[in-house]
# Entry
Amino acid sequence: MSDKLAVARRCADAMWDKDQASQALGIKVEVPAAGTAVAKMKVRADMLNGLDVCHGGLVFALADTAFAFACNAYDEQTVAAAAQIEFLRPAMLDDRLVATAVEDHRGRKYGYYTVEVRNQSDTLVALFRGRAAGTGKSMLSG
Amino acid sequence: MSDKLAVARRCADAMWDKDQASQALGIKVEVPAAGTAVAKMKVRADMLNGLDVCHGGLVFALADTAFAFACNAYDEQTVAAAAQIEFLRPAMLDDRLVATAVEDHRGRKYGYYTVEVRNQSDTLVALFRGRAAGTGKSMLSG
Amino acid sequence: MSDKLAVARRCADAMWDKDQASQALGIKVEVPAAGTAVAKMKVRADMLNGLDVCHGGLVFALADTAFAFACNAYDEQTVAAAAQIEFLRPAMLDDRLVATAVEDHRGRKYGYYTVEVRNQSDTLVALFRGRAAGTGKSMLSG
Amino acid sequence: MSDKLAVARRCADAMWDKDQASQALGIKVEVPAAGTAVAKMKVRADMLNGLDVCHGGLVFALADTAFAFACNAYDEQTVAAAAQIEFLRPAMLDDRLVATAVEDHRGRKYGYYTVEVRNQSDTLVALFRGRAAGTGKSMLSG
# Structure
């Protein structure tokens, strides 16, 4: 494993232990490479909205978790500054959603990420774009 | 109460009963007028992320709920097609968040809404913009 | 006229003299109050795209000019950091477009603005949202 | 040349002849593959705004042209429904800007594209995301 990936995974471990929100949603996260992340979530009954589909906010939350683990790979605490999501198809009860985050550009002030959320049929459910801002604080020696 | 508001509230009631996601997040919703909605949520420990602030996805979810109740006021099942959120300040444990949705424009195909999320100090936490698409199906006689 | 409006108009005058782009597009700008602006443009033949409607980039440019004059009202040079536009209807040759910018929120770091672009029938052509960032430099004593 | 690329280029030629706006801006377009496009523009004096940098609307217009030629590759007239742009760095007089559009996803109703705008130093100036909607009309037999 490269040093870069090792740092990314140590950051992910440090975040994960405290990430009660993602844990409560049953999300699982993997960091295949620095600047990327894969987050998985099964749509539970308590995630459905008034139209009997997965609440868009929880699809967003899944994507946002993938985004957070992708952008927090460099031992600098980094927060979401903004995000945009397109809902292409509804996610249904028991769907197994997979959110894959990749880094489009990492500049001086901001990083830009795209997250695709797909269901178990590999159909695109949502397309998410996030802008991340570094805080200047270390993640690992914080 | 105007007929228009009465319809909006009947739609809200119909949605609310099935909206397990918003209920699980402890959200409360009011519909002061057709095309508007106010949703409230207290930030719980199980809503915190790896940086000890409220998971951005759950701030989004609160705004998205307000958006859903604002746009589903006309007895037509209406879904979120896209949304954009700016995170201005973190929300902290026990913060009492209030999301207020207003209708900017309701056109033939889409409706456009702005949601402000404020904390108990009336400070703006997030600014959300949503695009809603009607499905052509009735909400009340569905 | 309030002092605030007087400053806004002096900033507008200072910008306008150098704004060759807006002048070349035949745009006219008014600043009715600090934080707002109205920009007008007639769609010329050299603004049409390959589908015989006004190039979306020029509709955006009109909205962006209104945005720039709305956010540069406080004697601080302020630039567009990001913007989002929804194209609701095409603008046609000879349409007289009016872009009206209002300030949604002005925070410590960023200002948020909405611009509506309407045609001569008062039909909404585009809905624009901009995020402005102050540079810390004076506009008037620069 | 593949049939697919041949169609894309015939569509591009058909659009280009009528695209007075892109021509007036001095833009040049190439279509290296269906679903992609490269558009180039030199920043002229009449493109500068009141802060002496290239008007953001014209940076957007360049990206939008690349987007239009990328999404109009399939012999169906396709229009921009929405777009989002992040301005990372100003573009200056005489800068030679290159906008490269790629297709992120092409679904039933909408196509999603990313356009990077870089200057002559290959520095990212703007990051653009567009949503395109097909009209159902042929481009070539129209």
